[in-house]
Sequence to fold (179 residues):
Amino acid sequence: MHRRTLDAEFAGFVRDNRVDLVRTARLLTCGDVHRAEDLVQSALVRAYVAWNRIRGSDHPVAYVRRSIVNAHIDESRRPFWRRERSVAEPPEFGAPESPPDDLGDAVRAALGSLPPKMRAVVVLRHWLDLSVEQTAEWLGCTEGTVKSQNAKAVAKLRHLLAPDGAPAPVPVHAGRRSR
Fold:
């Protein structure tokens, strides 16, 4: 296939999926638009390089999302002195309009209190609606790790988001009797 055709196809892919990819990245970065944009941009660069290979797959969006999650986790492993830091706010002109933000400040802050891998589990399981098996595959860990990380994350979020003074609601699990 000609490069121009591949480029046009990739441009269409980006146009159709960019807003959702940025939303996912914003959840991972707790609303930090600039970090989210950086994650999406680096994932799209990797996808462009591999486009001829991934375009025929069943889920090219999944490839890019996985790349975003992996880049987010890798960034969190980097020592703080090696991370890129912004010294000034970049100009806002020319930047695309941010996608609407469905999450409140409290939820974003609560997500931000989670370690990066735990946050990734929550985003993959509850935002992208992946199964435990798919999440484990994406993160390169066991299903048990996904389940325990998810349970800990949900408990912490429930505690952090409970109204002041109110105990966090405890779910009743199907098949178990509460005492």
Q: What stands out?
A: The CA atoms of residues 39 and 68 lie 6 Å apart. The chain has one domain: 3-78+100-161.
